[in-house]
Amino acid sequence: TFQGTTVDEVENEFHASVDDYLEWCKEDGIEPEKPYSGKFNVRLSPLFHSKVAIAAKKMNMSLNSFVEKSLKDELNAMQLTL
To answer: pTM (2 decimals)?
Structure first.
């Protein structure tokens, strides 16, 4: 954790915390966790892409929303909720 009474102090503490974390990872020989962008590409066959798009349209959802909901449903079924 990090704290400070000014923005500069908090920023400096944040950077120190990140540096400590990276050093700890290096010492333990582990790969640091990296933030995800929230975007990824999925390669589908044209036929499957079409079926997914049709299903999304039937549910009045964008393709992106349909895929996100489908993935959340699968995670819930696996008891891996967000």
So the answer is: 0.60
Quick one: three-class SS letters along 11-72? HHHHHHHHHHHHHHHHHHCCCCCCCCCCCCCCCCCHHHHHHHHHHHHHCCCCHHHHHHHHHH
One digit per residue, the tens of pLDDT, for the chain of length 82 reads 677 889 999 999 999 999 999 999 999 999 999 888 999 999 999 999 999 999 999 999 999 999 999 999 999 999 886 6
At residue 43, φ and ψ (nearest 5 deg) are -100, 125
Q: Find, among 33, 37, 3, the residue nearest to 17 by Cα.
A: 3
What distance in Å separates the CA atoms of residue 1 and residue 76, rounded to the nearest whole number? 31
| Helix (H/G/I), strand (E/B), else coil: 33 | coil
Amino acid at 60: N
